[in-house]
Specification:
Elements: H1 12-28, E1 31-36, E2 48-51, H2 58-65, E3 71-76, H3 86-92, E4 95-97, H4 104-115, E5 119-122, H5 141-149, E6 153-159, H6 161-164, E7 176-185, H7 187-192, H8 195-205, H9 210-216, E8 246-249, E9 252-255, E10 261-264, E11 270-272, H10 284-299, E12 305-315, E13 322-333, E14 336-343, E15 348-354, E16 362-364, E17 368-373, E18 376-382, H11 388-403
Parallel strand pairs: 1-7, 2-5, 2-6, 3-4, 3-5
Antiparallel strand pairs: 6-7, 8-9, 9-10, 10-11, 12-13, 12-18, 13-14, 14-15, 16-17, 17-18
Helix pairs in contact: 1-2, 5-8, 10-11
Length: about 400
């Protein structure tokens, strides 16, 4: 049997070119201030760089913050389908993983890379923040990985990152980001601390609310249409309770049924429009919490189940291309999320995932849900052009209910 090639750090030329490009973008597109623990530069050998995932630019900022290390980024397999990344992908030597699925192959690849002297960048939340806050759950398995690797851990967070590039928004908004990095665990601490104590530290470190941060610090982020796309996550009217009749345009979010309308203010707060109906909620996250409460009530019903028509695509793990596979219904109940339908030659197809261990899903702005089954990404695009935010909330709240997570 042919021996597997020894893992390598990113190619020096590719990495430096990418870093130079990122430095320019960070200077001219956004205003980033790096606050770095000087102890980071003193670390000899590989590190595990952990970060929150409030913005797509977190990966770029980690390259610039952990300056003296070349980071092999652990990324979702979907990233391999990004065409613009093709020219850099081979040189960056990223480590693909299956999002929200047990992927022992990626754990082995990370272990082998660190053993070969590589430093790793990992974002444990697994997806970009939807509402400007941390993901509700940090899997305890991350502490097992830290113990397994036994290298210093660096932690970073982009204060203001969500406001510069919110998941639901279009384009980049120019404004201030403070990217703070620190040594979180030394090798001695990793050996001395229990996994439970380490996990408690991680949970506290990963807590953030970019909406509060922006309002408290009166931060403005320049954008022509700051509210456009917001109805992607704020789908339920807080006045009449109608779902998926919200829309957004310019700096306003409004209900097409009852006329409720608010303006997204310059500091990220909701304001009345022309002294009209006052806002029911003052921030994105408080409005999003209202939707969570509604979902909790809905899933408490014994007969709960919803099902919506979708087009089914799968990503080829060799070509990294998405191919249409068929059509059918994406359903979710108290126990599973699943697909039932037909492939392109009319053969019946059905598969499902248990909700007991699935703490979130990937939701796409083009109103789709990704589910990984045996390292293959299946993408379900809702034919009605809505529902991904609600499906995501159902998965997360059902996980909390099943696992007694607060």
């Amino acid at each position: 049997m042919k021996k597997a090639a020894k893992p390598k750090s990113p190619n020096v030329l590719t990495y430096n070119v990418v870093k130079a490009m990122l430095r320019l973008l960070s200077t001219f597109l956004v205003s980033v201030k790096f606050q770095k623990d000087p102890e980071i530069n003193k670390i000899k050998g590989p590190v595990l760089a952990l970060g929150t995932h409030s913005t797509p630019m977190d990966v770029a900022f980690s390259f610039l913050a952990v300056r003296k290390k070349r980071l092999n980024v652990v990324c979702g397999r979907d990233v391999l389908s990004w065409k613009w990344l093709n020219v850099f992908r081979k040189g960056l030597r990223m480590i693909p993983t299956s999002q929200f699925d047990l992927d022992l192959s990626s754990v082995k690849a990370i272990k082998r890379a660190v053993a070969s002297g590589c430093s790793i960048a990992l974002f444990p939340e697994g997806k970009i923040s939807i509402d400007g806050r941390n993901l509700h759950y940090i899997a305890p398995a991350i502490t097992k990985l830290i113990k397994l690797l036994n290298v210093p851990v660096v932690f970073s967070h982009a204060y203001g990152g969500f406001s510069v590039k919110p998941r639901w928004g279009h384009g980049i908004r120019r404004g201030r980001i403070v990217y703070k990095s620190e040594v979180l665990f030394s090798q001695d601490q990793i050996k001395e601390m229990s996994s439970e104590d380490m996990h408690k530290v991680l949970v506290e470190k990963f807590k953030y609310n970019d909406n509060e941060y922006r309002i408290e610090n009166k931060l403005q982020y320049k954008c022509i249409n700051p509210a456009e796309g917001m109805h992607y996550i704020l789908y339920k009217c807080p006045k009449c309770g109608t779902e998926y009749e919200m829309d957004s345009k310019g700096d306003e979010v409004f209900c097409k049924v009852c006329g409720y309308k608010v303006m997204y203010g310059k500091f990220g707060q909701f304001e009345a429009v022309d002294d009209n109906i006052p806002p029911v909620f003052d921030r994105i996250d408080t409005w999003y919490d209202y939707q969570k409460e509604s979902v909790v009530k809905e899933i408490s019903e014994d007969t709960f189940e919803i099902s919506k028509p979708v087009s089914w695509y799968s990503m080829d793990n060799v070509t990294f291309e998405y191919e249409k596979m068929g059509e059918g219904m994406l359903y979710i109940n108290k126990e599973v999320i699943g697909f039932t339908g037909k492939d392109l030659i009319e053969n019946p197809v059905e598969f499902q995932l248990s909700l007991s261990g699935l703490f979130t899903v990937v939701q796409k702005v083009d109103e789709a849900i990704d589910l990984t089954v045996n390292t293959v990404i299946h993408r379900f695009i809702f034919k009605e052009g809505k529902y991904s935010a609600k499906y995501n909330l159902i998965v997360e709240e059902m996980f909390k209910l099943n696992n007694k997570v607060e």
